[in-house]
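haha ok so turns out i had the wrong file open the whole time. this is the CORRECT one, sorry everyone. sequence first:
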Amino acid sequence: MTYSVLSPIFILLAFSFAIMILSVFVKSQRRYFAYMTLVGLIVALFLVLDMAGLSFTSAMGLDLWSAPVDVYFSDLKIKVDSFSLFLYMIFIFVGILVTIGSISYIDKEEKYRAEYFSLMLLALVGMMLIASATDLFVLYLSFELASISTYALAAFQRKDKASAEAGLKFFLMGAVSSAIALFGISIIYGVTAFAGGATTDLAGISDALAVGLTMEGMTIPIILGIVLLIAGFGFKIAVVPFHMWAPDVYQGSPTTISALLAAGSKKGGFAAFFKIFLLGLIAARMEWVFLVAVLAVVTMVVGNVLAIVQTDLKRMLAYSSIAHAGYILIAVCVGTLAADPATLSIAQYGLAGGLYHMLTHALMTGGAFLVVALTAMAKIGDNLNDYKGLYKRMPIVAFCMMVLLLALAGIPPLGGFFSKFVLFSSAVNAGDWFVWLAVAGVLNSAISLYYYARVIKYMYILEGPDETKVKAPTGLYIAVILATVGIVITGLLAEPIIRFAQDAAAALLG
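then structure:
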């Protein structure tokens, strides 16, 4: 057993603490806290990609770990494998984009710059621990680490009433949802105790529930626990009807943090959802799979329909993110087929589609939020009407925004198209009623094209009040361009990414 596979987590923790310690001795609030954060993230990403099979260290003659990496730490109740590494990659990508954007976005005179980057790193560490957790309570504690950090970040702009309100709403709703999830965890734990194997290990819970479902009087507690877990973690991923906080929090938070929440924190929620429902509750799948399927369709429809009427771009992207949560829930439904060895390959393909779409959505939505941050800093605004004639004032930004929006709509050959294709085709391959999930996904993607195309229309067709070119901070420009290049690459390299995602799905589902 080697702890070297945890080096990406240790590095981010070390940089988080180092930034806080240095801030005590360094009084001037310079940008090197952001640069320190960026260095830590790049080193962590290098190690993650190396462990995932790109073999940088092997090419240099080093033998740090065996491939594929699959290490279980029984004392920590965490596991590092292809599934966790895929999610590590997503979280660190998002962290890099947000950090680069924050170099410009966080005002030079703003206090607590060190706290901003330190909290962001802690939030990423929490997300990475979620991806590795094999125990229900470890997963819950990891989620709280990520959540508490993001509560503070949402309210980071203390002089802005909208930011303070967003932080308060996020904290209150998050606290309630955490309590609900904890109540559900306690009920499931109680059921496993009655079934003769009290445990919080996810694999052990599945075995205990299989026994509990055969016992008289255990069905109702199991269903109650499952409903509470869906409600508690449904908040984390903004699934309808637990989505009401998202538009307000995304709109009021600093836009870079909105990008972190939509592109990163929500993916941590899905990591927890996959682990809890496809590992811990797979034995009771017939008690919840139809409910999750209904929530998936309702979430798609509500998210897309409400996005149509939005004129504030941050709220529009928030509702778009809600709709995409509905798409990813398809992977949870198809993943239940893993309970039958005959359909295991279909389940793995469906989960791979969900993971692939999590990656592309992180780049698409993260990049789009950073565009909004950039135009706001350029004094253009973040309302739809403010984007009239944007291509004349900021041609590079308008082009990047167009690419990101087309990717969100699922237009080929961008990454968003291929991830949706894998996700929806897995539902078709599953057959039976799963096909209707694919139909709902395709129809909702068509609906979403309307409001994405409307933004493009405002940028390229409608005339703006001023055609003077506008300058904006370099950091945000770089972050937006990186996100755009990333979503193009995820389309061009769809095949190797799908293979990586399938390996990740196989590591989780077996």
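The mean pLDDT is 87.
again sry for the mixup
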